[in-house]
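can u do me a favor
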């Protein structure tokens, strides 16, 4: 339970900004919430409410746990970046905020402005692969607590900035030729070690020069992502030391560069903690693991290592000391959907569980005898809370979205299932706002992670509570572990197991269908009005359901599609990987290859597909949809596709998110409810034509009847 004084603490929160900072971006005055009282009556949630939510860290809670906020050296303040989407301006308001953690503390904007930084990563041998996901911006404190340092992007360049923790001002402190990827502050506070990748600029210059005589088509290409080759990965990182007194930077020495590999409990990122009398508790992590933040709890004391042998200690994470005892987090329960906090007294046979919740606790940082965490629940967006672990008392430290309490929400019930592969999964059934028992409702399935705040599914394209406010039941599915994940040492070998007899596709489809059938059997859902949505692996499930399930009447996908041209669209380098997994080659015309594609591909099955399909895809991925789209259109099958410019696998632009949200709702309203949304005259006319084409016999049948 949230403590009784939590509301009072929030009401007492004061938001300040220095005049110099506030004047820099007047259009972003609402980047922090006002202290206005909550409305007396609730109103209906609409898609715009979700697009405009203020966020701390990436939207997807499974992307990043650590570094979302940090605590000052004296433990009195916390700092984080606050992000607020604006679909009208199609951009983000960004602010660096410092919160006083003491009772009735204030929230102070210490910097405002900059551009949204998107996460880039090395992927299949390609460096700096783009995404639409927010990069984690970790503020770091000077040892004296007077300054916070952070990365900020302006005019395309990512530099280091610092801001006075008292709101006295902010400034850029580097002028690097390359983007700054990471940094640490030296122990004496006189310098900052930061990392860049100068090899990226050099590699891109070589590629530009190559383009003058034509790019050689090879493993560097990913045709559905770019019409240029990527720089090869990995690229070496170079460390620099910035002297804060002189403002001069030089190459960092080995010991200085080693700071970049350190972690800190004050940033929610640690796998070991120092305790009394020189004792250290740490995690012993397996050499090959998909979860490097989990491991066996080990105590190093008196020149010997003592392991906690209890099962609860085998997959511990984020240990810290509370006096002479060790506390740690652990995921447990059905499909590891609960977060528990345990306490272990060194030498005891077993730890004691102190706390258990279904909510997500992100980036937690020990603070005195309590724990500071970003917390989100199924019906509650992320906010900063203080948790007294022993008593379970919760206090709200900072709520970015107090207005959310004034919106109507559908209630949530968790459904558990276990498929024929023996794998557990769960789904959250969200009832329509104003649900009436005995009445059957249309259902929309959203995939494929259902933990924390139920926002828009993986990729955030399908607004769960906006559907519920339009009279839909929603099933938010958390898919089971991959079939090959337990038996294989890495993802590649796991995918070989997953693909054999399409085991993982069948496993996930069962995990989707089981709770749908439960909702039908309970009289909640109309079995003739069920839609399914998905992005990425969720899109693969959408397509597999299209070919192998009779439960669904309408489909929406944010990435498309598995088809026989797959080796072409992924490029020659990735194609080798897919061949190794077990996919047929382009030139393989054997019966085995044809049988393979009949299980998952659109074009070999086009004659039997009659359900309507909506595709809303990024411009750097739409090429992969063209074979399936063309085959369906040639057979007058109902498919409509929209391509969003300057987007990636996960969309990042607020205007595009709002358009995706609203079109998805209107699509299912049309096909499942027969409702025509206002303002979509051309689209509705096109959808009517598709429906009419479905009612007419296909051209092939007409040709067969006409005879020779």
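np, heres the sequence
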């Amino acid at each position: 339970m949230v403590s009784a004084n939590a509301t009072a603490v929030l009401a007492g929160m004061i938001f300040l900004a220095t005049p110099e900072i506030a004047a820099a971006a007047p259009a972003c005055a609402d980047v922090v919430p006002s202290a206005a009282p909550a409305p007396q009556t609730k109103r209906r949630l609409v898609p715009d409410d979700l697009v405009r939510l203020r966020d701390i860290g990436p939207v997807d809670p499974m992307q990043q746990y650590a570094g979302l906020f940090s605590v000052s050296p004296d433990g009195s303040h916390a700092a984080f970046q606050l992000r607020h989407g604006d679909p009208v301006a199609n951009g983000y308001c960004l602010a660096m905020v410092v919160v006083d953690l003491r009772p009735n503390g204030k929230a102070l904007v210490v910097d405002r402005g900059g551009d949204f930084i998107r996460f880039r990563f090395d992927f299949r041998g390609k460096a700096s692969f783009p995404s639409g996901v927010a990069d984690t911006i970790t503020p770091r404190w000077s040892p004296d607590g007077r300054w916070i340092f952070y990365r900020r992007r302006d005019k395309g360049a990512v530099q280091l900035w610092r801001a006075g923790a008292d709101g006295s001002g902010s400034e850029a402190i580097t002028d690097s030729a390359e983007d700054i990827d990471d940094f640490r502050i030296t122990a004496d506070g006189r310098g900052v070690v930061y990392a860049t990748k100068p090899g990226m600029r050099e590699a891109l210059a070589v590629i530009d020069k190559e383009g003058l005589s034509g790019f050689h088509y090879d493993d560097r290409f990913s045709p559905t992502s770019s019409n240029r080759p990527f720089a090869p990965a990995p690229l070496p990182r170079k460390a620099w030391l910035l002297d804060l007194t002189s403002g001069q930077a030089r190459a960092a020495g080995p010991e200085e560069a080693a700071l970049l590999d350190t972690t800190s409990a004050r940033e929610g990122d640690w796998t070991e903690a120092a305790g009394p009398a020189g004792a250290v508790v740490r995690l012993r992590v397996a050499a090959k693991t998909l979860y490097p933040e989990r491991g066996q709890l080990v105590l190093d004391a008196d020149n010997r290592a003592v392991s906690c042998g209890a099962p609860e200690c085998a997959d511990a994470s984020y240990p810290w000391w509370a006096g002479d005892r060790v506390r740690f987090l652990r995921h447990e329960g059905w499909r590891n959907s609960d977060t528990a906090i345990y306490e272990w007294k060194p030498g005891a046979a077993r730890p004691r569980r102190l706390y258990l919740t279904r909510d997500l606790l992100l980036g937690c940082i020990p603070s005195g005898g309590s724990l500071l965490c970003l917390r989100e629940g199924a019906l509650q967006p992320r906010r900063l809370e203080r948790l007294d672990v022993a008593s379970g008392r919760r206090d709200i430290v900072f709520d970015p979205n107090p207005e959310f309490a004034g919106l109507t929400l559908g209630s949530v019930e968790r459904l558990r299932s276990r498929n024929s592969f023996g794998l557990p999964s769960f789904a959250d059934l969200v009832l329509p706002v104003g649900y009436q028992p005995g009445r059957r409702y249309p259902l929309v399935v959203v995939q494929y992670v259902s933990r924390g705040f139920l926002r828009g599914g993986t990729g955030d394209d399908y607004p769960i509570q906006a559907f519920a406010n339009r009279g839909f039941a929603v099933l938010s599915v958390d898919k089971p572990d991959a079939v090959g994940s337990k038996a294989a040492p890495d993802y590649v070998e796991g995918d070989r197991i997953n693909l054999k007899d399409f085991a993982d596709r069948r496993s996930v489809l069962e995990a989707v269908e089981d709770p749908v059938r439960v909702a039908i059997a309970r009289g909640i859902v109309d079995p003739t009005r069920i839609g399914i949505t998905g992005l990425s692996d969720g899109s693969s499930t959408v397509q597999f359901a299209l070919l192998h399930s009779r439960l669904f009447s309408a489909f929406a996908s944010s990435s498309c599609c598995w088809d026989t041209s797959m080796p072409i669209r992924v490029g020659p380098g990735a194609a080798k990987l897919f061949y190794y997994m077990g996919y047929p080659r382009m030139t393989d015309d054997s019966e085995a290859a044809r049988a393979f594609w009949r299980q998952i591909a659109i074009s070999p099955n086009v004659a039997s597909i009659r359900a309507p399909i909506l595709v809303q895809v990024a411009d750097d991925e739409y090429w992969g949809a063209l074979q399936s789209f063309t085959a369906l259109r040639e057979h007058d099958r109902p498919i409509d596709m929209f391509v969003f410019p300057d987007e990636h696998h996960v969309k990042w632009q607020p205007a595009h998110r709002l358009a995706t949200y609203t079109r998805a709702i209107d699509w299912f309203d049309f096909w499942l409810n027969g409702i025509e949304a206002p303002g979509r005259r051309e689209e509705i006319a096109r959808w009517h034509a598709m429906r009419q084409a479905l009612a007419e016999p296909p051209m092939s049948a007409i040709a067969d009847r006409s005879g020779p």
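The first helix runs from residue 6 to 11. hope that helps!!
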